[in-house]
Amino acid sequence: MVRPTRKVAAVSYVGPDFEPPRPPRRPLRRPLTVAVATLVPGALVGWLVWQAVGDDDGNGSAARASASAPAGRSAPSGDPDDGKERPDGGTGRSGGGEEPRTSPSAEASGPAASGPLKGKVVVVDPGHNPGNFRHPSDINRTVDIGTNRKECDTTGTASNSGYTEAEFTLDVSRRLRTALEKEGATVKFTQDGDRPWGPCIDERAEIGNKARADAVVSVHADGSAAGNRGFHVILPGPVHSGAADTRPIVAASRVLGERVAGGFLRATGTPPSNYVGGGTGIDVREDLGGLNLSTVPKVFIECGNMRDSEDSARLTSGTWRQKAAQGISEGIVSFLRG
Questions:
Q1: Phi, psi at 129, each rounded to 5°
Q2: Is there a contact between 224 and 141 (Cβ–Cβ < 8 Å)?
């Protein structure tokens, strides 16, 4: 999400080339040769898997996560799903984006495995699209969120070094998908870097609604002032206006949000926000289209402030992003298992 300065793009993984040594063939040791030939490829596969999930210097793991994301950057802008100025000096925006069509990402990512969440549907909403900056007229048009109209989406924020929120959200979301699928859940994305821009905030909500999701989590990072740090989870407030009616989901969304906040805190050790939520890590909003238009339990998580050097060091670490995804997953699992 964002505050006066905002977000941008995504990443991909490339491991070093590695050629396993071929075991020498000795006629008198044929059984040993066969055994070595069997073990070496297995060891190589294990090594490559370790490389794929291991830590990087900050952008490496994200760099592997999205080979399909378009290249290029623009100046970060504010979030569409939140336009209010706040005492922290930012807009505190948090949004999504849409286009009047169904994204391929709305389809299930793959067959669900057996596990405690088998039969459960989780929609993961990676905040912003890496290509949004190339489509200003599309993302700047307004959409109805029930209480008023807001921009379809924004580019999102970015760290001072240029690591974009869109990159971050896709990387964490993909890691989250992997964790949830291991628990047996069916996971759907609102976008996976597979469309040129969007979707708009109203379509993001619609994707979760049409999927009849048991839980929806929108992943973001904030763009507030330096010194403002920590995470917070945003819950829908009671809204009943126009197409928006959150009353049926307010209670369940609070439970989901509290479980996600608890899991995130335990897994990452990141403190709750020192500028939103009064130290609770929980914030209730009635001005976010992605929440206002949802008919299923849904929350947003701002994983940290990309404009603060301390938070940025976390957000740009592959190891930390893995912990973040695991923490969010643990919260969702706890919610869905009751």
A1: -120, 135
A2: no
Please report the DSSP string for 50-67 in residue order.
HHHHS--SSSHHHHHH-T
Class for domain 70-337, per CATH? alpha beta
* Residues 6 or more apart in contact with residue 187 via CB below 8 angstroms: 108, 109, 112, 121, 122, 123, 124, 176, 177, 180, 181
Strand partners, 143: 150
Q: Which residues are within 8 A (CB) of 298 and not within 5 positions of it... i.e. 6 or more apart?
A: 205, 208, 213, 215, 216, 217, 218, 236, 249, 253, 256, 290, 291
Instruction: List, for residues 240-266, the tens digit of each pLDDT value.
Output: 999 999 999 999 999 999 999 999 999
Give just the sign of the alpha carbon dihedral 10, 141, 1, 216: negative
**Residue 267 confidence class, pLDDT cut points 50, 70, 90:** very high
Q: Bridge partners of 284?
A: 235
pLDDT for position 114: 84
Handedness of CA 157, 327, 299, 98 (dihedral sign): positive
Q: How far apart are CA 300 and CA 302, in angstroms?
A: 7
* Orientation angle between helical segments 165-182 and 318-337, nearest 10 degrees: 50
CA distance 189 to 32: 48
Residue ranges covered by each domain of the chain: 70-337
Active site residues: 302
- The model's pTM: 0.73
pLDDT at 29 over 50: no
Please name the amino acid found at residue 323: K
In this structure, what token pair is assigned to residue 272?
């709750």
Q: Give the number of residues written for the chain.
A: 338
- Residue pair 316/59 in contact (Cβ under 8 Å)? The answer is yes
Whole-angstrom distance, CA of residue 219 vs CA of residue 300: 6
User: What's residue 139's pLDDT?
Assistant: 97
Torsion angle of the four alpha carbons 248, 326, 287, 253, in this order, in degrees rounded to the nearest 10: 10
DSSP one-letter string for 118-135: TT-EEEEEESS-TTGGG-
Averaged pLDDT, 107-130: 85
